[in-house]
Amino acid sequence: MTDNTGTFLITLAVPNQNDPDALNEYTTKAPKLAMDYGLQSVVQFSIVDQIFGEHQTAIVSVVKFPSEEDIVNMFESEAYQPLLALRDRAFESISYYISPPEQSLSLGDTDGKTYLLVMAVPGDKQALGEYQQNLRPMAAQYGAQPLANVPIASMYIGEHPSAFLNITEFPDADSIRSFFGADDYQPFLPLREKALLNLNLYIGQ
Predict the structure, then answer these.
(1) Of 15, 59, 68, 120, which one has the greatest count of Cβ atoms within 10 A?
(2) 8 A C-beta contact, residue 141 and residue 43
(3) Rounded to 10 degrees, what is the CA torsion of 127, 205, 138, 97?
(4) Greatest CA separation found in the chain?
């Protein structure tokens, strides 16, 4: 089994479809450089819908490095600096988040599967506990299978702070939409507002 323990770089990005040459060049050169710093690809999600939140994204990727130092050294290396202008052309927006060390993430085969991706900052502790206690069994009725929660230690680049990336598998995108649209869910919206700050809910495949 592959060892997926390490420090994770979480990337949220919106590619610039008007400059495909820059996108292709960046996505070819940057991963090659990152491999010199120990990059190991873990998973990438294409976002098919956003249920809630202000942080728009088309891609969520999670890759593993040996340490935060390796991530920072890559971004600050002389070899990466020429890629900055290319990155600005390749993406309409991009955000980087770094997990604490010694995290573990193993999702298995993700092909053809659908996931709810949650990014947020915990708010009121009592409200969060009550929200989780009530919503977990409700989500299970729609086929939810919690898979991973990756804590975030720092935001390297971006404007939308987050404290974690939570990943839950659902049977399909409609199951996620039905869960959040259910009559039984609506009374918990005020509680969610207190429990989870800067909340973004994505459907990824």
Answers:
(1) 120
(2) no
(3) -10
(4) 55
Per-residue pLDDT of the chain (205 residues), as tens digits, is 346 789 999 999 999 999 999 999 999 999 999 999 999 977 999 999 999 999 999 999 999 999 999 999 999 999 999 999 999 999 999 999 999 999 988 887 888 899 999 999 999 999 999 999 999 999 999 999 999 999 999 999 999 999 999 999 999 999 999 999 999 999 999 999 999 999 999 999 9
Query: CA 63 → CA 4, 105, 106, distances in Å?
Result: 9, 10, 11
Query: Does this model's pTM top 0.90?
Result: yes
Domain count, the chain: 2
Distance, CA of 47 to CA of 133 (rounded, Å): 27
- In contact, 132 and 144? CB cutoff 8 Å: no
**Burial of 84: CB neighbours in 10 Å, binned 0-12, 13-18, 19+:** exposed
Q: Residue 155 belongs to what domain range?
A: 114-204
